[in-house]
Amino acid sequence: MKLNKAIAKRLDAILKERGLSAYKLARMGGPSKQVLYSLLKCAYERVSIDVIYDIAVTLDMTLSEFFSDPIFNKVTD
Q1: pTM above the 0.85 mark?
Q2: Which sign, positive or negative, has the C-alpha torsion 21, 43, 10, 56?
Protein backbone atom coordinates (compact mmCIF):
# COMPACT_ATOMS: atom_id res chain seq x y z
CA MET A 1 0.00 0.00 0.00
CA LYS A 2 1.23 3.48 -0.77
CA LEU A 3 1.86 5.85 2.12
CA ASN A 4 -0.66 8.42 0.88
CA LYS A 5 -3.38 5.74 0.88
CA ALA A 6 -2.49 4.63 4.42
CA ILE A 7 -2.64 8.24 5.61
CA ALA A 8 -6.03 8.71 3.93
CA LYS A 9 -7.41 5.54 5.53
CA ARG A 10 -6.08 6.51 8.95
CA LEU A 11 -7.55 10.00 8.73
CA ASP A 12 -10.89 8.63 7.54
CA ALA A 13 -10.99 6.19 10.47
CA ILE A 14 -10.17 8.92 12.99
CA LEU A 15 -12.83 11.21 11.58
CA LYS A 16 -15.43 8.43 11.77
CA GLU A 17 -14.39 7.54 15.34
CA ARG A 18 -14.87 11.13 16.41
CA GLY A 19 -18.00 11.82 14.40
CA LEU A 20 -16.26 14.50 12.34
CA SER A 21 -16.14 15.39 8.68
CA ALA A 22 -13.27 16.93 6.76
CA TYR A 23 -15.28 20.15 6.70
CA LYS A 24 -15.61 20.16 10.51
CA LEU A 25 -11.91 19.42 10.94
CA ALA A 26 -11.06 22.37 8.70
CA ARG A 27 -13.41 24.58 10.71
CA MET A 28 -11.66 23.48 13.92
CA GLY A 29 -8.45 25.03 12.61
CA GLY A 30 -6.90 22.16 10.71
CA PRO A 31 -5.79 22.27 7.10
CA SER A 32 -8.26 23.68 4.59
CA LYS A 33 -11.14 21.51 3.48
CA GLN A 34 -9.67 21.38 -0.03
CA VAL A 35 -6.41 19.95 1.34
CA LEU A 36 -8.30 17.46 3.50
CA TYR A 37 -10.59 16.31 0.67
CA SER A 38 -7.59 15.92 -1.64
CA LEU A 39 -5.75 13.96 1.03
CA LEU A 40 -8.74 11.65 1.58
CA LYS A 41 -9.01 11.06 -2.18
CA CYS A 42 -5.26 10.28 -2.41
CA ALA A 43 -4.85 13.14 -4.86
CA TYR A 44 -1.40 13.89 -3.45
CA GLU A 45 1.46 11.55 -4.27
CA ARG A 46 3.33 12.87 -1.24
CA VAL A 47 1.80 14.28 1.93
CA SER A 48 3.71 16.91 3.86
CA ILE A 49 4.48 16.06 7.46
CA ASP A 50 3.38 19.62 8.25
CA VAL A 51 -0.14 18.78 7.04
CA ILE A 52 -0.24 15.63 9.14
CA TYR A 53 1.07 17.58 12.12
CA ASP A 54 -1.67 20.22 11.69
CA ILE A 55 -4.28 17.46 11.57
CA ALA A 56 -2.88 15.75 14.67
CA VAL A 57 -2.67 18.97 16.68
CA THR A 58 -6.21 19.94 15.71
CA LEU A 59 -7.42 16.51 16.83
CA ASP A 60 -5.40 16.79 20.08
CA MET A 61 -3.15 13.90 19.06
CA THR A 62 0.58 13.42 18.82
CA LEU A 63 2.23 12.35 15.59
CA SER A 64 3.07 9.11 17.35
CA GLU A 65 -0.63 8.49 18.02
CA PHE A 66 -1.52 9.27 14.43
CA PHE A 67 1.05 6.82 13.08
CA SER A 68 0.41 4.13 15.74
CA ASP A 69 -2.18 2.34 13.58
CA PRO A 70 -1.13 -1.06 12.16
CA ILE A 71 -2.13 0.13 8.68
CA PHE A 72 1.30 1.79 8.48
CA ASN A 73 2.93 -1.65 8.73
CA LYS A 74 1.48 -2.35 5.27
CA VAL A 75 3.22 0.58 3.56
CA THR A 76 5.58 -0.64 0.87
CA ASP A 77 6.66 2.49 -0.97
Answers
A1: yes
A2: negative
